[in-house]
Amino acid sequence: PDVIQKEAENRRMAQERKFVSEPLVSHIYTADPSAHVWDDKLYIYPSHDIETDIPMDDTGAHFAMRDYHILSMDKLGGEVIDNGVALSLDDVPWAGRQMWAPDAARKGDKYYLYFPSKDKQDIFRIGVAVSDSPTGPFEPLEKPIPGSYSIDPTVFEDNGEHYLYFGGIWGGQLQRWQTGEYVAEDSYPADDKPALAPMVAKLSDDMLSFAEQPKKVLLQYEDGSPIPAGDNDKRFFEAAWLHKYGDTYYFSYSTGDTHNIAYATGDSPYGPFTYRGILLEPVLGWTNHHSIAEFDGQWYLFYHDTQLSGGQTHLRNVKMMPLAHNDDGSIQTLSAFAD
Ligand code: FUB
C-alpha cells in the first residue's frame, strides 16, 4: 500500500532533514493538534498515538489510539503541560476502537470534546463528551451524535453559533456515505466528477446534536467549478479546520495522499470555498493535519510530523510555528523543514 512505500522514504528523510520547530512534548506521541485560546491560555486537543502490532494499511488500522490527553500552555515559550487522560476508550459505551483526531468547543461554562471512533460495528461515528474544565476529564454521552459519521470533527464558532465540520476519505469512510446511508463497500466518484465533500452541520443549542441535516461543503476553483475527484493535489481528503481572518472564512484541509495542507476561502461558514493554495507543504510522515489559532496577537499553525519516532507514520509529535496572512488574504506557504 501507499503507506508502506512512504514509510521507507520517511525513515530515510528522518536522518537527512532538519526541522524548523521542535516537538511540544516528547514523553508521549501526539498528533492532529486542534488549538484553542480560552481566557488567554492555549489548549491543544491532540490525538494520542501509541505503539501497536497492527500492520500498516491504507485504512489506517495502525492508528490504534485509545485515549486523549490535553496539552496547555500559559504563555508562549512557557511549559507545555500534559493534563493527563481526559477521555479513555474504555469509558465510551458505544466506541470499539481507534480514537482519531478530536476537537473541542466552549459554550457558557461547559467544554465539549468531539471525537471520532469506530463503533462496535467498525463504523466511524462522532462522539461528544462534556466537562466543566477545558482539560477534562470529559464525560461521554451514551451514544454518538445521531446522524454522525466519518472522522476529523472540528467545531467553529461564529456569532454565537457552532458549526461542526467532519469527514475523511479512505480509512475515514466518507466514501461509504454517498447515498446518505452506510454502504460497506468503498466507492469513489469518477476523476472528472466533483470530489467527495466534507460535511457541515450547525450544532443544537445544547451542543450535543446536529440542529440540521449535514450539508456538503463545496470546494471550487476560482471559476466556480467544483474541484474534481481526480485533482489529488487540491481535493479534500481529511483534517478540516475553519478560521476567520477579517471578514473571510478560511477552510483548510489535508489533501491526504498528496500530503499538503491546502486552504480555500469563502464568505460564509457553509461555503462555497474557493481554492487559494497550499499553506503547509508535506511534513515527515504520511499524514498532515493542522489547526490555526491566534495566541497573544500572533497567528500560529499547529501541525505534526514524525521527527521523534524517526519517521514512523503512526507515531507523531505536535509542533507549532508562526503563520502569516498577506494583505490580499492569501496565506504564506510554510515548510516544516529548515533545509
Ligand atoms: O490520527 C488519525 C488520523 O490520521 C486522523 O484522523 C487523520 O486526520 C490523520 O491525521
TrEMBL record:
Q: Which domain of life is it from?
A: Bacteria
Q: Which Pfam families match?
A: Glyco_hydro_43
Which terms are listed as keywords in the entry? Carbohydrate metabolism, Glycosidase, Hydrolase, Polysaccharide degradation, Signal, Xylan degradation
Q: Which GO terms describe its biological process?
A: xylan catabolic process
- Per the UniProt record, the site (Important for catalytic activity, responsible for pKa modulation of the active site Glu and correct orientation of both the proton donor and substrate) maps to D152
InterPro entries in the record, alphabetically? Glyco_hydro_43, Glyco_hydro_beta-prop_sf, Glycosyl_Hydrlase_43_Enz
Recorded family membership: Belongs to the glycosyl hydrolase 43 family.
> What is this protein's name?
Glycosyl hydrolases family 43
Q: Which species is the source of this protein?
A: Microbulbifer rhizosphaerae
